[in-house]
Specification:
The chain has helices at residues 3-17, 49-65, 81-90, 110-118, 133-143, 159-166, 176-184, 207-216, 236-239, 246-276, 290-297, 304-307, 319-326, 338-345, 364-367, 386-395, 397-427; strands at residues 23-24, 27-28, 37-42, 70-75, 95-97, 121-124, 147-152, 171-173, 192-194, 224-228, 280-283, 310-312, 332-334, 352-354, 374-376. It is an alpha/beta fold. The strands form 4 sheets. A 7-stranded parallel beta sheet has the order 5-4-3-6-7-8-9, with helices on both faces. The chain has a 4-stranded parallel beta sheet with strand order 12-11-10-13, with helices on both faces. Helix 1 packs parallel to helix 17. 44% of the residues are buried.
Length: 429
């Protein structure tokens, strides 16, 4: 689906979403007896700041567009105290439950049982797939309340999952490739549209930590650009300190096979930045493996004269400190997706390098009008375009700002329309 078609659908969806405000005589058409209640199934893992960002992004959207709603987070078991504390700083009233629904329909703990009774609507948050498929399926079977899916990638699924998606009130896909595939494979949910990844709406901040890091490393506002490396397959076996499986070994072989191919364009871009501008380059991570990847595949392979202009972040960080740093940069480039999403959502330009191992999510850059800033490294010659595009992005400030503003406007329109649909659903449960 082309961006123009998305825009044309906004007016229709937006009109449907404001039914609640229609007035008959002196009385509103919709007067809820109490605040609508949403159980947000989100929070997939904490080793990647992009995965962390899904949850506060969707929470911020609900807060903005459906301020009367009450929201409870149904989180995965690995949600850490550190990440929960970060989320509570931004959303101090947020209640969090964990657990599962058993085959008998009984929740695994009293807190989840109470949440299932309390909620009006289950919203599955952004992610690389219908991540919590089993939880959603159990909810539909035993709780028998409506649900929707917000901002996922779809790479194919078995029949049971396709049927579950078809039974949703709505499914929003975060890239048009996923949307087209879902339709081809016979998913028939009544509302299936492009819906931006929830991380576009993240507004977390830790300005104090960012200021301390920048001061310690000689980084000044607007005088550095961020770079994020990435292997083809995230080495979770290393992150989680677990023995490698045969599947892991095959992934590692692929990583080693492609690491030079994928990181040479980033090194070339860094060389160009240090030659043509006075900017520094911050090598930083999106997941816990990338500090070492940046050191090994970028920093140590650059000439000494260039390395003096590089700041290598050796420690992992949380989403709030990362975003407080990104918004003070001149821009970002690399091989990850969610740091660019957070940048564009907060008015900072960002280039995206993608490959097949990342699923189709990277194509959302074309969907939101930033196709010129997307580089498919599986296509010959694409990596070589990063350097010149990055230099133009950094030097053509007016053109860059226009592209960012245009993408933001489109994302905001889709956010308003999709949240309007959710609001309408809540009025009828």
């Amino acid at each position: 689906m082309q961006r123009r078609r998305f825009l044309q659908s906004v007016a229709t969806l937006g009109a449907a979403s404001v039914v609640h405000s229609t007035v008959y005589g002196n009385r509103p058409a919709f007067q809820p007896a109490r605040a609508p209640r949403i159980l947000l199934r989100s929070s997939w893992q904490v080793v990647n700041i992009g995965d962390v960002a899904h949850t506060p992004g969707v929470l911020a959207l609900i807060e903005k567009h459906i301020p009367q709603a009450e929201v409870m987070l149904w989180a995965s078991n690995d949600l850490s105290d550190e990440v929960a504390a970060m989320e509570h700083r931004r959303f101090p009233k947020l209640k969090i439950v964990k657990g599962t629904i058993g085959e008998s329909g009984k929740a695994s703990n009293p807190e989840l049982a109470a949440a299932l009774e309390w909620t009006d609507f289950l919203l599955h948050g952004s992610g690389p797939s219908l991540v919590a498929y089993k939880d959603v399926a159990a909810f539909v079977k035993h709780v028998k309340k409506p649900f929707g899916v917000y901002g996922i990638t779809y790479s194919g699924a078995e029949e049971a999952q396709r049927e579950l998606l078809s039974s949703a009130q709505f499914v929003y896909f975060r890239d048009s490739v996923s949307l087209a595939k879902a339709k081809r494979e016979g998913i028939t949910c009544p509302i299936m549209e492009f819906g931006p990844d929830g991380a576009f709406a993240v507004d977390l901040r830790n300005d104090e930590a960012a200021a301390s890091f920048m001061k310690a490393n000689g980084l000044e506002r607007g005088k550095f650009v961020c770079c994020i490396p990435r292997l083809r397959n995230t080495p979770y076996w290393e992150i989680r300190n677990k023995p490698m499986t045969d599947v892991d070994r095959a992934k590692q072989i692929r990583n080693e096979e492609m690491q030079e191919h994928d990181h040479q364009p980033l090194r070339d871009a860094i060389m160009a930045v240090t030659k043509e501008t006075d900017l520094k380059v911050l090598l930083c991570p999106e997941d816990r493996s990338q500090m070492e990847v940046g050191r090994r595949l970028i920093l140590e392979k650059l000439p000494d004269a260039v390395r003096s202009r590089i700041v290598w972040r050796k420690d992992f960080w949380l989403t709030d400190e990362a975003l407080s740093t990104y918004v003070q940069s001149a821009g970002l480039f690399g091989l990850e997706m969610h740091s660019p999403i957070m940048c564009i959502g907060n008015g900072i330009p960002a280039l995206v390098g993608r490959f097949a191992e990342q699923t189709s999510k990277g194509f959302m850059w074309s969907d939101i009008g930033l196709g010129d800033w997307l580089f498919d490294l599986d296509q010959p010659g694409e990596g070589g375009k990063i350097s010149s595009t990055l230099l133009t992005m950094l030097s053509d400030k007016a053109g860059t700002e226009a592209k960012v503003v245009g993408a933001q406007q489109f994302v905001h329109e889709r956010q308003a329309a999709t949240m309007g649909t959710l609001r309408t659903m809540l009025e009828h449960v």
